[in-house]
Structures are given as structure tokens and as C-alpha cells.
Amino acid sequence: MMRIGQGVDVHAFAEERPLILGGVRISERGGLAGHSDADAVLHAIVDAILGAAGLGDIGHYFPSDDERWRGASSEVFVHETLRMYGGKIANIDVTIVAQRPKLAPHRQAMKSSVAQLLGIPEERVNVKFTTTDHLGFLGRGEGICAMAVVLLA
């Protein structure tokens, strides 16, 4: 049986931290606030997989008040989620909403990173970007939103 899941994650900017998205270090500053490395893309992917598998959400397994996850790489969350799920991922589609920084130059690196983390071919991973045309907190450049849809086979 095929199952679909959706994940969404939003983080405010924390200028003193590195920006990591999809397992790729985008910059040394201008990162995101969070308990872990705040990789909103991987957090959305984890939530999408957990949702499709009927396993709850990221906060249940990796709560922000658990000191084990302070500063943790979100890649750990992906690996643990794949272990819990134990099935195959057919494909994944990621949308990142951000007014800044320009992320298109990092598309291929993110696509490759996500494919490697999930153990699937790159052609089964899509990464795209959009803005809110300066509307709302994302448009004011206060943070980043990542959304992921996954199909489990």
C-alpha cells in the first residue's frame, strides 16, 4: 500500500548560527534558531515520513526540551526515522519559502544530500523555492518555512 505524508517546519533566523538546509551548510551566519541544528528542511522531511507511516510527529520522538537533541544534527533525526519506518520511500518533494537568502544556487547540493540521506536516487527528490513577495513574517525576512511531501511505497 502506498501512503503519503506532509511535513511543515518554520524557524526564525538566528544570525550567529550557521544556516543548514537539507543537510547542506549554506552559510556560516544567518542560520535558524532551534534546539538542534534547526535544519527546517530535514525537520519537514522527518514529519512527512512519520505522518505517512502513521507514527506521529517529530516533537514526539525528538522534543526540543530533551537535552539529548541540543545542537544535534538533523541528519540523526532522519536516520532514526528511517529506522523506525523500515520501508521504502518512493519520492519526496520539498518546498522552501524564504525571502532571503537566495537558495537556488544550492538546489543541486540539497537534492543530492536529501537523496543520500534517504537512500533513494536523486531523480526521486525535488527541491524548489518560493517567496511570499514580502508578505508576512517570511516576506519580512524573519525566518524560513520548509514543506515536504513524501510518498511511501
Explain this structure to me?
It is a single chain. This protein is of the alpha+beta class. It has one domain: 60s Ribosomal Protein L30, Chain: A, CATH 3.30.1330. The chain contains five helices and seven strands. It has a five-stranded mixed beta sheet. Strands 2-3 form a two-stranded antiparallel sheet. Strand 2 (19-21) and strand 3 (24-27) form a beta hairpin. Helix 1 (40-53) runs parallel beside helix 3.
Beta-strand portion reads: 25-35%
User: Spatial order of the strands in the main sheet?
Assistant: 4-1-7-5-6
- The helix/strand class is alpha+beta
Please state the CA-atom Rg, rounded to the nearest Å.
14 Å
CATH topology, by name, is 60s Ribosomal Protein L30, Chain: A
Mean pLDDT: 97
The CATH architecture assignment turns out to be 2-Layer Sandwich
The quaternary structure here is single chain
Percentage of residues assigned to helices: 25-40%
Corresponding CATH superfamily: 2-C-methyl-D-erythritol 2,4-cyclodiphosphate synthase
Distance between the termini: 7 Å
What descriptive keywords fit this protein?
153 residues; alpha+beta; 60s Ribosomal Protein L30, Chain: A; 5-stranded mixed sheet
Summarize the structure.
By secondary structure, the chain is an alpha+beta fold. 30% of the residues lie in helices and 30% in strands.
